[in-house]
Amino acid sequence: MEKEENILGTEKIGKLIRKFSIPCIISLLVNSLYNIVDQIFIGWGVGYLGNGATNVVFPITIICLAFALMFGDGSSAYLSLKLGEKKKDKAAKGVANGIIVAVIISTILCIITLVFLPQLLNVFGCTDNLREYAQNYGFIIAIGLPFMMIGTTLNSIIRADGNPKYAMTSMVTGAILNIILDPIFIFVFHMGVQGAAIATILSQIFTFTMNVLYIRKFKSIKLDKETFKLKPAVAKKVSTLGISSFITQMSFVIVMAIENNLFGKYGLDTKFGAEIPITVFGIVMKISQILNSIIIGLSTGAQPIIGYNYGAEKYDRVKKTLKMVLGCSVIISTIAFILFQTIPEKLISIFGSGDENYMEFACLAFRTYLLLCICNGIQIPAGIFFQAIGKSVKSAILSLSRQILFLIPAMIVLGKIFGLNGLLYSGPVADGLAFVIAGTLLIIEITHIGKRKSKSEALIDDTSTQSKVDKHIVITIAREYGSGGRYVGRLIADKLGIKFYDKDLIEKVAEETGLSEEFIESNEQQRNTLANFSNGYYFGLNNGDELFVKESEIIKKLADEQSCVIIGRCADFVLKERKDVLKIFIYSDMKDKVKRAIEIYGLNETTAKKEITRIDKLRANHYKYYTENEWKDYSNYDICINSDALGVEKSADLICQIVKEKEKAKILF
């Protein structure tokens, strides 16, 4: 671990980017090409109506992919977290439950698709001319959905197990097999769209088989019959950890459904008809996805470099990394822009030939819809940059801005005003607006980067070194904001002559990781809803997760070495297996908490109430996320005290008295 951290902080930026980004780019490109290969051969073997059919079936595949990534990425995050806590058995159960749920949901989705395929195709904009092709293609694709979903779920888990090469090999091999089988089934056996679908599911079955065989080869855990028992609570936790991947993919589904329906609707009023716009736009989107895959892979590979150096306050390296990523991304997007504007007819011809109207609309779509694709070279890296430095709100805004906030409204509004052309105008409008937001946020962040806020004053460890307890004891204190729980903990440490750890833990984490205290303080115990968007495909654990794992290790180490009082940080959960731990929860009435916040922190009454509510919610979310328990569930603790019923001094005295009595009665130890 230390060696990798030194590399991130000392190795040449260019070399690091190549090391981390190339595997991401390759994997993402393989995923993109998987979707495109069928359309290329269908276009030549069947015609553009066959391609239009695959476009209306495609959202069904993405829905299933959304679930697969939710279980796969969720299992991966669960695996990493539990391994960080040194709980291999729980890690194995999490992975097994992720696989079990993937099997169950994939089977259900397969049945639903087979039974309701015609209705689903209508939802995704299928026309009468596309229906026969879409049903023939979609029925076979539906049969292979369980193999695709389970294989994808396992692929994410295999990467988290520390074997990305195997995961990549299984994906690439499947993609190559698909390329080989497509022309055989389409041109040799003359099976049309059905042949393309068969080639796809055979390739998915091959990848599925490779990944299933890996189950016996896991390096970090061991899966056996005992682990493969469905635990609803574990399955729910795994799904929660992967929810961001699900949301991201489902947003694509919503966009595709709206796009297909709008292009079909407004296309009817033009010489192009409904099928040409649906077909062409699907191809345009998939070609542009190749561009985005390269930029996403490049940016994602740079994420750990940016994150580490930002945390270590090596801001020059952060800026240099960002500059290189933005430079490369803009170059790539500029090349793509030139191709889209100069040779659109050659790009569309890769997917087969069409009549004059087909080629005319294809050129119009490439040149208009992708007019500002250069902006992707800024917007995409910006979102991943903010993710890397722990700014989850800004990252989420940038992740959602183009597709959800701008593109869909623009298509609806401009479509009503300008018809089919308005739908094409929505592309540059969304790209331009997303670029303005991304550029503005980036400029503000870079301008202020390195200008540190005044550091929170850490409590100095001036407790007595002469312990007044005969036995080893660890006291954990969870507390509501403004309840005085931190001060109670400090008084207990003073009275018992044992160590006190609150802000001091930040210093220890900083020493072991090389990250700055400011970075740690701003990212620990900050679990909000938008933080879920920081967990995604290839992103692994976010900053909060990494810090929780590291803090848990330090808390366990401190508990082994000395008697002490530990404030917050889920310490009661981290140490729940120990018998020498006294778990305490300090709470208070809102009126008393507001009064204390006004006196101690200098807040006014209105601000105090908002701050108390906000911080307590963050603490509750943080506790729930990592422990799967409710923060205010008093059954989690040995003692719960209203600090204002006795006052903080007498509360501390009472707890010390209980410790002494338990010590004498040998109850606690």
Compact summary:
It contains 26 helices and 5 strands. It is mainly alpha-helical. Strands 2-3-1-4-5 form a 5-stranded parallel β-sheet, with helices on both faces.
Q: Could you list some keywords that capture this structure?
A:
about 675 residues, single chain, elongated, mainly alpha, five-stranded parallel β-sheet, disordered N terminus, 26 helices
What does this structure look like?
- By secondary structure, this protein is mainly alpha-helical.
- It folds into three domains: 36-46 and 56-240, no CATH class; 242-296 and 303-451, no CATH class; 474-665, P-loop containing nucleotide triphosphate hydrolases (Rossmann fold).
- 74% of the residues lie in helices and 4% in strands.
- The protein is built from 26 helices and five strands.
- The protein has helices at residues 2-10, 13-45, 48-84, 88-123, 128-143, 145-160, 164-188, 192-214, 232-241, 243-267, 275-311, 315-342, 344-349, 356-369, 376-388, 392-418, 420-448, 485-496, 503-513, 517-523, 543-561, 571-574, 590-601, 605-627, 643-646, 648-665; strands spanning 474-479, 499-501, 564-567, 581-587, 639-642.
- A five-stranded parallel β-sheet has the order 2-3-1-4-5, sandwiched between helices.
- Helix 11 (275-311) crosses helix 15 and helix 23 crosses helix 24 (605-627).
- The radius of gyration is 28 Å and the shape is elongated.
